[in-house]
Design a protein that fits this description.
Number of strands: 11
Distance between the termini: 34 Å
Structural class: alpha/beta
Order of helices and strands: HHEHEHEHEHEHHEHEHHEEEHEHHHH
Helix content: 40-55%
Radius of gyration: 20 Å
Strand order of the largest sheet: 1-11-10-6-5-4-3-2
Shape: globular
Length: 383
Amino acid sequence: MRNGALASGRWWNDLLWRTSFRLKLRMLLHGIFPPVTTPFYPDGKVYFKKLESNVERYSRTPVSGIVVLGSTGEAILLSDQERSDVLKVARDASAPNKVLIAGTGVESAFETLRSTEYAAELGYDIAMVRTPHYYKKQMQTGNILAFYRTVADRSALPVIIYNIPQFTGYDMPAEVVVELAGHPNVIGIKESSGDVEKVRKMVEGTRHIKRSATVTETFEAVTPRMLAAASVTSAEGGELVSIGAVAGGSESKPSSSAVTIVGKMKTRQKEVGFQVLVGAAQKLQPSLDAGAVGAILAFACPAPTACYEIYAAWKEGDSDLARLKQERIAKAAQVVAGDLGVPGVKYGMDFNGYYGGPSRLPFLPLTADVKAEVERLLSDIRN
């Protein structure tokens, strides 16, 4: 499958740019990111056509990017080959202006790096690495620091930490996050504990970190796939600039006013620092108030626009509207994504016009009464 991809001229062009930029181009993580589900046929096989369809549809919404192989994607229930294929199909279906985040974290640093390298070869922008947790007695500060520093030192992609204690049983302390944030290749965290005060501590503890990301003229994320497309325009008569110019020289002295042109695409630098994203849609607005810059939300799978509206209102400084939009989804987000988990998210997707479909065991199908409750909660949250 990978050989077939390399045979494509478009893919080869993307790969050349990816190799040049992946260690230099910092990514903007502001906004809403749905962690896409993995669709299955009734017999349990991965339904790749529906995955493709869902990703294409998310690409037409105002979300900033897409996360593949997160918890909502049932990554832990997939085989190695299925995970590789899911990454490939989602990458091919995604629009070039959407940031692509691959869930590559497993229990060992060695296997995490192997998965991350494959995601980089496919053209993903960021690796999301969940905390190792199986050997809980060994999950002390020294172990965690060594794991993430080893991964970050050798990773072909920028790394975001993934803390989800409700699944792993391990909650990374804010102090450890702050220490890891100093690594130049650890660019952020997805904090899914739902603890707003912890978000505030992490933001305050990393405020001294000054980094810049390459963004569009209107301060949206720039991906290597966008630059690859712009380079084609350059080859056809536009203007091509050097990698160093696009990546933006010194990390300590970014220039937000300087505009760099690739083909017909204008880019500039934006100071971003260490970027904190959250995972609880029912607490999105207070988390943004606490300093988070965006969110990776399971509830954004059935309701991406409703989640984005909270972020958009907050970004515009309309706190009353953001609070109103937050109240609108709070109960549904808690029940559908928080309480019911993947089966609830998938049924919500079915109800809202995406393909959710069945989940794999040990998940069981929702009962008729629970489905009716999901429909009631989502009745005025349609996308």
